[in-house]
Amino acid sequence: MGILDSLHPVPGLKVLVTGGASGIGSVIASAFREAGARVHICDVDRTALDTYTSRHPGVTASMADVSISSEVDCVIDDVGTALGGLDVLINNAGIAGPTHPIEDIDSADWDRTIAVNLNGQFYFARRAVPLLKQSGTSPCLIALSSVAGRLGYAYRTPYASTKWAIVGMMKSLAIELGSHDIRVNAILPGVVAGERMDNVIKARALATGMTTDRMRETYLQKISLRRMVTAEDVAAMALFLCSPAGRNITGQAISVDGNVEYL
User: Fold this and answer.
1) Contact, 141 vs 89, CB < 8 A?
2) Which residues contact 51 (CB under 8 A, 6 or more apart)?
3) Chain segment 72-122, per-residue pLDDT in tens
4) How far apart, in whole angstroms, are the C-alpha atoms of residue 5 and residue 211?
5) Count of CB atoms within 10 A of residue 174's CB?
6) Rounded to an integer, what is the distance from CA 123 to the centroid of its chain?
7) How buried is 75 (Cβ within 10 angstroms: 0-12 exposed, 13-18 middle, 19+ buried)?
C-alpha cells in the first residue's frame, strides 16, 4: 500500500456514530459512508433520524437517549444485527449545557450535561469495546471532546467539565486497550460554524451583556486563523484516524480548531 492509499479508511468498516442524525455526527456518518463504510447511527431525535436515513439509503439507525444505559444496550444489540460486528465507535453525542455564572446554574442542568456528555460516552465504550476486541480491522474508538477540553470556559462550566473528563477517559482507555490493538483518540473541535454555535454565541452574549455580533467577533479574535472550522474538517480528521495512515496514533487529544488561543 502506498502512502496516498493509506490515507483512506479500509472499505467495509463497520462504524457506529452516536448523535449521528444531525450536526457534526451526521457529517461524520456521511463521510464514512462515502468512504465505503457500513454505518449505523443513533440519535434521540426521531424526526432527524428518519430524515437522515431517507436521504442516505443503507445507513441503519436506532433511537436512543445516550444517558440511559438500557437504551445504549439496545443500540449495541441493533448494531450486532445490522452490521454483524463493530470496527469503529465514534462517541459523538453531546449537548451544550447551560450558559450561566456558576451561582446561577441549576442542579438539574448540571446533572443532565454530565449524564449525556460523559455518562453516555462511558455506556457506549463499555458495551462497544468487547465488539472492538473481536474486530480484525485495526479497530478505533474516537471520542468527541472540544477545545473546551483543554481550556477553561467561563459561563460554560458543566460543558467544559465533561469535555475535560472525556479526554481523561480517552487517555486511560488508550493504555488499557493498546494491547488489543485498539486505538483510542479524542477530537477537540473548536468553534464549529453552524446552528449550535450560533445558539451558544447568543446565550453567552446574553450572559455577559454583549451584543451577539460583538460576541461573534470576540470568538473569532481568539482563533489564530481568525475563522471557524466546519463539521467537514472534523469528519476529515476522523477518517484519517481510522485509516492505515493513523495506525500508530493513539492516546491523543487532537484539536481541529484553527488554534483557539483562549476561551
Assistant:
1) yes
2) 21
3) 999 999 999 999 999 999 999 999 999 999 999 999 999 999 999 999 999
4) 48
5) 19
6) 14
7) buried
Euclidean distance between CA atoms 215 and 203, whole angstroms: 10
CATH numeric code, 3-190+230-256: 3.40.50.720
Residue with the three cell numbers 454483524? 84
Q: What is the pTM of this model?
A: 0.94
Q: CA–CA distance from 57 to each of 37, 204, 227 (Å)?
A: 13, 39, 34
C-alpha cell at 239: 477518517
Name the grid cell of 131. Answer: 465488539
48-62 pLDDT tens trace: 999 999 999 999 999
For 57, phi then psi, to 5°, come to -55, 140
For 252, the grid coordinates are: 491523543
Structural domain boundaries in the chain: 3-190+230-256
* Residue 161, amino acid: S
Q: Which three cell numbers stand for residue 130?
A: 468487547
